[in-house]
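Below is a filled-in request sheet from our internal design queue. Each sheet records the structural input a requester submitted and the sequence that came back. We keep these sheets so that new team members can see what a complete request looks like end to end.

REQUESTER: design group, bay 2
PRIORITY: normal
MODE: inverse folding
CHAIN LENGTH: 86
BACKBONE (tokenized):
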């Protein structure tokens, strides 16, 4: 799976390293991404998501079910992509 947040859809951006002499070389700005387990009350199971820090704040703000339904509606993840643990 690539480095894309399953909740917010954030992915790596491309930019430049700029040296002191203003010489520019390409680089990537990676997302603050990590794997996190959540208890999904509506399905009574544990799920594992690859989310960014902003995605974690969004889940804390609106709830896991609301964040997942918005992410699926916007096309950031699919229900079959969500990993169910036990």
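RETURNED SEQUENCE:
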């Amino acid at each position: 799976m690539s480095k894309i947040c399953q909740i917010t859809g954030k992915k790596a951006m491309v930019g430049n390293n700029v040296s002191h002499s203003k010489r520019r070389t390409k680089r990537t700005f990676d997302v603050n991404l990590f794997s996190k387990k959540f208890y999904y009350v509506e399905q009574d199971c544990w799920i594992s998501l690859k989310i960014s820090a902003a995605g974690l704040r969004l889940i804390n703000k609106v709830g896991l079910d609301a964040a997942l339904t918005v992410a699926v509606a916007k096309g950031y993840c699919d229900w079959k992509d969500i990993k169910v643990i036990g």
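SHEET NOTES:
- The helical segments are 53-62, 64-74.
- The longest strand covers residues 33-40.
FILED BY: M.R.
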